[in-house]
Amino acid sequence: MHRVIFHLDMDAFYASVEQRDNPALRGQPVIVGAPPSRRGVVAAASYEARKFGVRSAMPSATAGRLCPNGVFVPPRMEHYRQESRQIMEIVARSGAAIEQVSIDEAYLDLSATCQAVGADESLSRGQPIARELKQQILLQRQLTASIGIASNKLLAKLASDFAKPDGLTLITERDKVQFLRPMPVRAIHGVGRVTEQVLQQAGLHTVGDLQDYSGDLRALVGSWGPKLKQFAFGKDDRPLELGDEVKSISAEETFERDTADRKILRACLLEQAADISARLKRRRLGARTVQVKVRYGDFTTLTRQMSVEEPLVEPGDIYRLGCWLLARDKLVNRPLRLLGLGVSGLDEPSAQQLPLL
Ligand code: DCP
Ligand code: CA
Ligand code: CA
Known about the structure:
The protein is of the alpha+beta class and about 350 residues long.
């Protein structure tokens, strides 16, 4: 069986939704996030704003400096989640098996629909299907998506990124090794900033360098070495994680001013616990692990987590564990810039926690 995998990713997702909903924003450098006068970061930047170097996760103040004419728009999370559901419904109608990886992206497995004699013949059968899918999303949601087609997740993701926005890129089995060669090592799934540095110090800058490397990558990156080598040649057998289970739910807040005020922090945690609990209940889930995240003025970020036997659902329970984690490790030993609360280890709540009908 030849694998045919799509990676679909919406273009400048939050910013595009805002531009669609408000024609005055079209063609403008739209920056979704906190205003530059406030603390906080950029969530999304329209392609017009990116010309000025504005990027997601950049402090809004920096974005304001880079792009003085930027139009800052506050995020509307519930609206984007709603939009995401509509898009994923269209995606689901393609008949593919789907792994949604984030609010605006998904892997699709079209192997069954596209089987042909050869691997590359199978892949090219995906092309009209991808074109049609992009067209449906444009017609029904007035938004553009980029799609990558390849024989696995690693390549499909690189392909969707390749011709953004409104792109459609197919990487054939024949071309994949060449396609990867000029890419920076950072493009490889799993290579973060630390690994990138280690590789660069060894003179390995591009994926081509990795392909040509005759030494043992294990000496550089440990047991991950052989896998990294395979990735460098475009080999990746990770399956799609099917089913639409969420793995974690979290909330976080950046404060207007760094604070160690217990009253403010407790109120913040309580609100986050209520939000998380509501999302758990909507999905009829409980959580076995609670995590807190703190970030100090100097951007040092710490997380602490703790697991319990019985899945938690109620806001009070999640809140108490959060408070306890903060206290146990004395995390509020100086003012916080950000406080976050999250849950994972999601599972059905135990029987006694189910509300009586
Ligand atoms: N997002 C965010 N904070 C980040 C990154 C992303 O809030 N640090 C949000 C806003 C984005 C959305 O998630 O619109 C999707 O993220 P992407 O990384 O896919 O980026 P975009 O869709 O904005 O742009 P691209 O066209 O590059 O995919
Ligand atoms: Ca996107
Ligand atoms: Ca994305």
